[in-house]
Amino acid sequence: MKKEILKQYRDLQKEQKLLEQELDRLDCIQSDIVKGSNREFPYEEKIFHIEGKNVVKYNSCRKLLESQKAMCMDMRLQIEEYIAGIKDSQTRMVFRMRYIQNMSWLEISVALGSYNESYARMLHDRYLNKDKLS
């Protein structure tokens, strides 16, 4: 898997939350003004305000947002499956801390027992280069 795809994990989380909020606020209420008259004499002309939900627009907006949300979830799942498929435990922890927990290279290195910032990055890059050759 490419580094660019792995880096998208954080953005996918944010996008999924944003789409969930949009789905919650989705209403598609439309309003209009129409002319009419009284039902009884005197038949005076009046202006009426009407409003309602545009069901067609609501359904299409909802379907679009739900498909985008599903796409985000699928991409996140692919990334998580890729990380879970790493056989080496230490390398798997590096990837999980970097992409899922959003930790810096120094924080990851310290968590692994090294104070050299490049230690975690070295494990990460070595695995990606080896994976690219396979």
In short:
This protein is α+β, with helices and mostly antiparallel strands.
Explain this structure:
The longest helix is centred in the middle third of the chain and has 30 residues, at 55-84. The protein is rod-shaped. It is of the alpha+beta class and 134 residues long. The chain has a two-stranded antiparallel ribbon with strand order 1-2. Strand 1 and strand 2 form a beta hairpin. 10% of the residues are buried. The chain has helices at residues 3-25, 55-84, 89-100, 105-111, 117-133; strands at 29-37, 45-53. The chain has 5 helices and 2 strands. Helices cover 66% and strands 13% of the residues. The model has no long low-confidence stretch (mean pLDDT 89).
List strands and helices in order, with pairings.
Blueprint: H1 3-25, E1 29-37, E2 45-53, H2 55-84, H3 89-100, H4 105-111, H5 117-133
Antiparallel strand pairs: 1-2
